[in-house]
Write a sequence for this structure.
């Protein structure tokens, strides 16, 4: 039974004081203090061995766990993680099993808990996913059908400057159209590099990228300022499937060669690093035979596009079945007396609304479907994800 609802420490001291006077039996004291006889004898024994400190509550956690991973095995797991700080528990355990197959290593979940307790893991931050591409990737057969673009991954030069290499290549010929070290992967720094490539090599029909910025956003259609600019130039933005870099495998393989040849180790300054990129690009295009090209070089297979870059950006054209609206400075359009928010990336752009039935309209930016608007419920839904109970 519990002690009375006062201070437990005071109750225990009063109980022991009364017990030491020997005026009442233990049973009478138990009835008075509202406790059981086993509880009374427990506190009497603790007082006799430890004095008043024996009245403090003790940790009830077991001192020994029969299924606990031995400390030696934990130490090996931690040491391996420190040698491979980017590896997760599954990969680490595979390596440990190969080295010592006779040892009973912990489960993946247990290994993850061990790493977490020692501060060797970080909780993943939730990220809103970019809308998945709803069209298959273009099957390129000629130069300039598809270009691929990506960022190699930033690093710092010897003097501490940040370098984030933007790479652009032709999908069919593997020709490396550009390799420029930028400070940040933002529109203001990326657009001039594409302008330079467009002026030098003409326009492709499509550009294939991943789903990160500045190529895509989490907004309607996954459109960013960069991909909107491409669409107005008549270029189709192609996004690979999330977590599937093999969809852009040729470009990723070039990145491996780029890193080994020009960025391991990083150069002393950003200028020296760019010089290394330029030297690599020339060697890669002009001198390095490629097995996928029948041992030809990319420069032997690449031909400039006959689609010229327009210095004045053309407006998009829509068919007669579309109603045209221009996106306002707050990212909204006005339709049937309602203000509909689309995206801040589309500010100043023309969008087309095409009737689906008497109640619904599909909203497009050029060839890209963005959303459906339902007049009866006054709700807008992402394209391909219509649920009458959910709004954007």
């Amino acid at each position: 039974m519990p002690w009375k609802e006062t201070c437990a420490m005071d109750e225990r001291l009063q109980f022991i004081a009364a017990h030491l006077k020997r005026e009442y039996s233990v049973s009478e004291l138990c009835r008075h203090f509202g406790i059981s006889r086993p509880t009374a004898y427990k506190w009497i024994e603790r007082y006799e061995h430890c004095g008043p400190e024996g009245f403090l509550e003790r940790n009830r956690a077991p001192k020994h766990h029969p299924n606990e991973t031995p400390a030696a095995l934990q130490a090996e797991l931690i040491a391996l993680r420190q040698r491979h700080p980017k590896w997760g528990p599954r990969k680490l355990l595979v390596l440990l099993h190969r080295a010592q197959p006779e040892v009973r290593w912990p489960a993946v979940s247990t290994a993850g808990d061990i790493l977490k307790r020692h501060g060797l893991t970080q909780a993943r931050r939730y990220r809103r996913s970019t809308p998945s591409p709803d069209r298959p990737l273009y099957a390129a057969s000629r130069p300039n059908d598809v270009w691929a673009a990506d960022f190699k991954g930033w690093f710092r030069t010897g003097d501490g400057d940040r370098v984030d290499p933007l790479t652009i290549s032709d999908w069919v010929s593997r020709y490396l159209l550009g390799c420029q070290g930028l400070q940040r992967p933002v529109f203001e720094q990326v657009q001039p590099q594409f302008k330079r490539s467009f002026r030098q090599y003409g326009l492709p029909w499509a550009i294939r990228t991943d789903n990160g910025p500045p190529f895509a956003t989490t907004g309607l259609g996954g459109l960013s300022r960069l991909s909107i600019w491409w669409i107005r130039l008549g270029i189709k933005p192609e996004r690979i499937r999330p977590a599937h870099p093999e969809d852009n495998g040729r470009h990723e393989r070039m990145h491996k060669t780029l890193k080994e040849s020009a960025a391991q180790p990083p150069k002393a300054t950003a200028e020296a690093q760019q010089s290394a990129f330029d030297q690599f690009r020339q060697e890669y295009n002009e001198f390095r035979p490629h097995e996928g090209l029948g041992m030809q070089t990319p420069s032997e297979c690449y031909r400039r596009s006959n689609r010229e870059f327009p210095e004045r950006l053309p407006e998009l054209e829509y068919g007669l079945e579309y109603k045209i609206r221009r996106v306002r400075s707050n990212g909204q359009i006005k339709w049937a007396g309602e203000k509909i928010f689309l995206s801040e990336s589309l500010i100043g752009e023309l969008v087309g609304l095409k009737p689906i039935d008497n109640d619904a309209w599909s909203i497009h930016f050029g060839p890209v479907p963005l959303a459906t608007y339902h007049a009866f419920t006054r709700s807008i839904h992402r394209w391909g994800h219509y649920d009458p109970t959910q709004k954007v």
Summary: The chain is about 35% helix and 15% strand. Residues 385-392 have pLDDT under 50 and may be disordered. The chain has four domains: 8-55, 71-117, 146-301, 323-382. The longest strand covers residues 162-170.
